[in-house]
Design a protein that fits this description.
42% helix; 3 helices; two-stranded antiparallel sheet
């Protein structure tokens, strides 16, 4: 009886370790393919939070057009780097339109993100390359999505019909679905 308990404990430990290792590997693979988008508001006032969303919408609209013919991350990074000044101008224009004079900081770097679900899409926690727009003091609630592949855009995400696939869909690109099956148990 002791041996059975010991064997079960080792089996559970091994399966848990495999799941953790697999999730870490998958996160690293996805992190290589994504550029996330992060907007941080000046404060948590209703006015500043609304402004954050206005900046978000204006930047997404512009980047959607620029990513229209981009199909790989390397090109997306180039487009993003070449758009940094324009993104800052877009944000400053929206801020001025709202009657504010907040400073705007725009940076492309690697930042930590928590696990985030966008409809059917779940991205595990980890460090991702991201375009970050900080409005003013950047002490307010933030907003994020995936800039590339363009999952911030409604037409960039397609829903998988119930029962068609198992696991948690992470993202879809070129009709290929990437899923983390072990995360399905957490739902």
């Amino acid at each position: 009886m002791k041996h059975v308990k010991w064997i079960l404990a080792v089996l559970v430990f091994t399966l848990s370790l495999c799941g953790i290792t697999y999730n870490y590997y998958i996160q690293q693979q996805y992190a290589k393919e994504l550029i996330r988008f992060h907007v941080i508001a000046n404060s948590n006032t209703i006015e500043d939070q609304s402004l954050k969303l206005q900046v978000r919408d204006a930047v997404i609209k512009e980047m959607k057009e620029r990513f229209a013919h981009v199909d790989n991350k390397e090109d997306a990074v180039i487009v993003t780097e070449n758009s940094m000044d324009d993104i800052k101008e877009i944000a400053e224009r929206e801020i001025a339109r709202a009657g504010k004079d907040y400073e705007v900081k725009v940076a492309l770097g690697r930042y930590p993100f928590p696990t985030k679900t966008y409809g059917d899409i779940t991205l595990p926690a980890g460090n991702y390359q991201a375009l970050r727009v900080v409005i003013g003091e950047g002490k307010g609630h933030n907003w994020w999505c995936v800039l590339f592949p363009p999952l911030c855009f409604v037409d960039g995400v397609q829903t998988v019909k119930e029962g068609k696939a198992k696991g948690v869909k992470v993202f879809e690109k070129d009709n290929i679905e990437f899923r983390i099956r072990s995360l399905e148990f957490l739902k």
